[in-house]
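We now fix the convention by which a protein and its fold are recorded. Here is one such record, which you should read through line by line:

>
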Amino acid sequence: MPPPIVDAHTHLFPERLAAAIRAFFVQHISGDAFHYPHNYKAARAALAACGVGRCWTLPYVRQPGAAPPLNRWMAETFAADGFVEPGATVHPGDDVAAVVDEALDALGLRLFKLHCSVGSYSLSDERLDPLWRRLSERAIPAVVHLGHSPGGTTEARELAELEAVARRWPTAPIILAHCAAPAVDEGLALLRRFANLYADLTPVVFQLAPVAAGSLAGLEERILFGSDMPNVVVRVEQALDAVRALGLSAEGEASVLGGNANRLVPPRAMRRATGSEKLEL
């Protein structure tokens, strides 16, 4: 049997926050075109029904002070859920070191998400240095949504922020969300220059990331599958079919659909078995 699929880009949030995000998308971006419910329990069930075996849920915040309670909700809500790997976030206006220390040491979270557009900041903001330092020390990944467009797209010129961070922190695993769509060629070129960079193939609301067959050659171990569940119009099955249509080898496809995510963030059952995780909830 093929290995389980890992969806490395979902957003399972508390009801009030999830409803507010859905309302924003409906009003400003996509209208009422969504296939999936915003409620986290229903979205989780929809992922499982699509054949996903595990997912990462990636929080993000608009302003300072919002990250700690959201990180705690993530850790507490999914503490016993082997299907969902909860992530953490931070805003550069926070006491970044304190927020990161709590997330990693007290809450046991093992990945971060940064959303530059929602939080209105630059990825290269030096106030984030305590985050990059801790992630570098422990090889903990951060998924970064680099673009500042409300529609979720990234311009090629914005990749300079990621290049600056990758150059300063060469051992921090950084995952470029949406493969910088539509600037995917420039995003993949940056991956070829920096060994600590990864990318996910997550759609941008209406559209699949425009990745051409053959463009991932040599990068198969640094590409992840993502759906953007639940605020996406592209169905999960369509996103999976797009990966399978890239003409990857069996090993490369298995890596993209789950192996790479599991290497970056091993399932919690595996971490506990090896003594590499201590939850202090």
Summary: Residues 55 and 84 are 5 Å apart (CA to CA). The first helix runs from residue 15 to 30. The chain has one domain: 5-273. The mean pLDDT is 94.
